[in-house]
Amino acid sequence: MAVEMRMRDALREALREELLRDERVFLMGEDIGGYGGSYAVTRGLLDEFGPERVMDTPISESGIVGAGVGAAVAGLRPMVEIMTINFSFVAFDQIINNASKFLYMSGGQFNVPLVLRMAAGGGSQLGATHSHALEGLYAHFPGLKVVCPSNPADAKGLLKQAFRDPNPVIFIEHSALYGVKGEVPDDPDYRIEFGKARVLREGTDVTIVGYAGSVHQGLRGATMLEEQEGLSAEVIDLRTLRPLDIDTVIESVKKTNRAVIVEDDWKFGGFAGEISAQIMERAFDWLDAPVARVSGKDVPMPYNRNLEFAALPSEEDVVEAVLAML
Amino acid sequence: MSTKAISGRPVTPGPDLLNHFLYQMVLIRRFEERCGEMYTKGKIRGFLHLYIGQEACAVGSINALEPRDRLIAHYREHGHAIVRGIDPDRIMAELFGRVDGTSHGRGGSMHIFDTEKHFYGGHAIVGGHQPVAVGLGLADRKMGNDNVTMCIFGDGGVAEGEFHEALNLSSLWKTPVLWFCENNGYGMGLPLEKSIANDIYKLAEGYRMPAVRVDGMDVLAVYEETQKAVAHIRAGNGPYFIEAMTYRYRGHSMADAELYREKDEVAAFRERDAIERLKRRMMEDGHLDEAGFEALTQRVEEEVAQSIAFADASPQPEIQTLFDHVYHEQE
């Protein structure tokens, strides 16, 4: 059976089911309890599970992420919510030097089963410090897994999988998607394996690759291409950046011979560059045009609505990129 | 050793325990001296931070823990690992970067770990392991264990923000953490008065936990204070803070030209040497004579030589194992 729900409710269902399933699971974060979570994902969980399982923490990102690392190596299954990815910079040392390296530096002795949830993405006029989309940044580090769902069903299945993973998982939720509705399986064992991209729409003329919010620009762009230009675009949702399912992308490119990568992140040094390079390395002979990147503009995010809109990738940009390569 | 404080009243060590303390301090010192030699020979590479001078801190404090307690330390941690009971052969092999090392050559001098001994590292970003200690303690509190987590750090770790976040959280959450500051007077080359604007233990008092200062060059004083702290924490009273005043005789690392301090200062601290003090006391009490001390140093000499031979004989890691341990496989 499947039930229609918003992404924030799907995430809450996943947290609730994992809290019920495994006594070692506990949640901590800034205002996740009494306040209900800054994006209302954890609303009601404090009442149901109590303050030992759902812990409100001070605004102390490095402290609480480090505490999550410690609780994880000691045998629990913590989930730390860092409210937004923008505040994860304050905890960067804990994520990069402790969470991602504990296992390796100890020669395989201590693993860190830690789930770090954070909201990300721009588009809400929150300005330069509160609009980062840095999924690709975390994907850079060996030892971390990076998950970025684009819809409610994936959000639930991937978050439940994150709690079963014995490694640190950076679980990034695009803030513009919390209200998006979709059908979500209600099977308590429903999970989605990491490293499995999904073909959302089949096509023959071009492959459009996205993740999290950019999947939606890709899908809308594909619809416009079909309606306005009669072109058939295949759209792939990566779902996880580490592990990365590049095989699905390569297979598609070998069929369509063209690829456009869409992402909210800055183009310079961004994750689209990684995908582009891997396509070049593995499918160079199949390409009829250089791989195109539709990314955020290389500026700190402006506050003004029109400027912010111009800084973010749009479906029109996707269409333009595809037409330019034909 | 079955001489642990149970009720909160510190146990005065008997002759056997004193002898054990002396042995461990001499072992650490000789181990470290020989590490210095192995570094100049190129057997040990990277950064090497020697613990010589600070032995009473590790020996006096860690011996007050139970085997089930958790220990996490900074990067000058060979001595802590030895006192914790990790085989010195395997520690030396790790310093040599060999497969029989505690991390099979992945960690090095600054990253000694051991699951069986509940030794959670060896951490090399100053202050970075302090929040992790909060989580270790939090886990025990949540699981209903009466374990103590001991977190050892230097005075250099006190000016980091993570120190303040960690102390605040441990006090708010009543986590069973023993904060043990080894104040050796310098954060690398910067003297304490240029890095911390208050006495360190007073900062801990500001976070509403018991905080004491102890002579870190006196192994018995450290042992007594740590027993009190452990009893307090194990009884469920939350964190406790010890500032042990100590001194390192050697440079910050092997690369240190020691331009920032006078030789007289080092000599003055050597006058208070923890090994000499304990040895003198044991001789005065009739528990040790020169022949006994000679036998002890001879035993240590042979043991450290054995560790070096073990490390040198251990194979280099196979290149095809490069990617082992990046990710854990089982659920």
Total DSSP helices of chain B: 11
Weakly predicted, low-confidence segments of chain B: 1-6
Sketch the major β-sheet of chain B.
6 strands, parallel
How would you spell out the order of helices and strands of chain A?
Answer: EHEHEHEHHEHEHEEEEHEEHEHEHH
CATH hierarchy: architecture of the largest domain in chain A:
3-Layer(aba) Sandwich
Looking across the biggest beta sheet of chain B, what order are the strands in? 2-1-3-4-8-7
CATH topology of the largest domain in chain A: Rossmann fold
DSSP strand tally of chain A = 14
Give the full name of the CATH homologous superfamily of chain B. Thiamin diphosphate (ThDP)-binding fold, Pyr/PP domains
Q: Helix coverage percent of residues of chain B?
A: 40-55%
- Biggest interface between protein chains, with counts per chain? A-B, 43 and 48 residues
What is the mean predicted local confidence, pLDDT of chain B? 95
Overall pLDDT confidence of chain A: 97
Nutshell version of this structure?
The complex is a heterodimer of chains A (326) and B (331). Chain A has 326 residues and is of the alpha/beta class.
Provide structural commentary.
The complex is a heterodimer of chains A (326) and B (331). Chain A is an alpha/beta fold. Chain A has twelve helices and 14 strands. Chain A has two domains: 2-185, Rossmann fold (3-Layer(aba) Sandwich); 198-324, 3-Layer(aba) Sandwich (Rossmann fold). Chain A has a seven-stranded mixed β-sheet with strand order 3-2-4-5-7-6-12, with helices on both faces. Chain A has a five-stranded mixed β-sheet with strand order 9-11-10-13-14, sandwiched between helices. In chain A, strands 1-8 form a two-stranded antiparallel sheet. The model of chain A has no long low-confidence stretch (mean pLDDT 97). Chain B has a single domain (15-317), classed as Thiamin diphosphate (ThDP)-binding fold, Pyr/PP domains (Rossmann fold, 3-Layer(aba) Sandwich), CATH 3.40.50.970. In chain B, 43% of the residues lie in helices and 11% in strands. In chain B, the strands form two sheets. Chain B has a six-stranded parallel β-sheet, with helices on both faces. In chain B, strands 5-6 form a two-stranded antiparallel sheet. In chain B, helix 1 (15-40) runs antiparallel to helix 3 (78-84), helix 2 (55-62) packs parallel to helix 3 (78-84) and helix 5 (130-143) runs parallel beside helix 6 (161-172). The longest helix of chain B has 26 residues, at 15-40. Chain B is globular and about 50 Å long. The two termini of chain B are 38 Å apart. At the A-B interface, helix 3, helix 4 and helix 5 of A face strand 2, helix 5 and helix 6 of B.
